[in-house]
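Review this today:
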Amino acid sequence: MLLHVIEAKYIRDYIIWLRFNDGAEGDINLKDHLYGEVFEPLRDLNLFKSFRVDPDIQTIVWDNGADLAPEFLYENMNVLA
């Protein structure tokens, strides 16, 4: 099964809650993953909070061109029971 983010909500700091197409949901703290040219601007919380779920690539994206693979998000999230 291909993984797709179907819903995402900002929680606090650099934490985002995610729901995937297989029903799994949880949160991920991206604070330690914001490095590199496209991700460093996201250290500004106002920019970080502006993510959305892109319906075409089915993951979270930012207007500066940053996006994260659904597989990365899935493997690194804290699953909520």
About this structure: Strands lie at 5-12, 15-20, 25-29, 52-54, 59-61, 78-79. The longest strand covers residues 5-12.
